[in-house]
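Residues pack. Consider this:
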Amino acid sequence: MATVLLIDDDQSLRETLAELFRGEGHKVIQASGGEDAVGLMQSTPPDVALCDWRNDIDGRAGVLRFMQCEGIIRSVPVIVLTAYGDAESRVQAMQLGAYDFLVKPIDLDTVMSTVNRALEHVSLQRSLERLQSERFRDGRLSVRAEVNEDQGEQLVGRSPVWIDAFKKVGQVAQTDLAVLLEGATGTGKEVVARVLHRNSRRSSGPFVTVNCAAIPEDLVESELFGH
């Protein structure tokens, strides 16, 4: 169960979203504007926040600015909701650290999937912080890839290099960028690729593995794209 903070002056929208999240077993706290939201965040820290772009702190992005200044934005992903979908607002929101940007009228399925991705991101981030806080045992670096029957491949490690890799997985998995993974045989490239896929927006689709090295050079094109 997660704590979801809703910040919007549209009470009808807040109640609709609150019902949606409570139906998924989450706790919901609500604020009609930025000033109320600041107080709520200090008394009941949320796991994720959905915030109207225009609020009563300074008329625009006030909550985001507050969370950025206080360092809260690093641990609480903020999904911006707005009726103004212009590029300038989107860029500004992302620069302030927003996790995502949804334009009203919003689709409830899209909101739910975005919140789920944000919560997965938080879970991954907390795992990274936990790994970083652990001391190396016996002075040795450790890294391994494990397969969990319920969750699939899991990256487990304590070396600085892998900690950095974990961070990159969390950042890149939320984008639509093409990703090239390099490394020698046996270093875990396919495991990383599967973790990226599982945490991406395409996680509901298939993950297809193609061993190009095993395909004769003159057949690669037809194998990948058809005859």
Summary: The chain is about 40% helix and 15% strand. The longest strand covers residues 143-148.
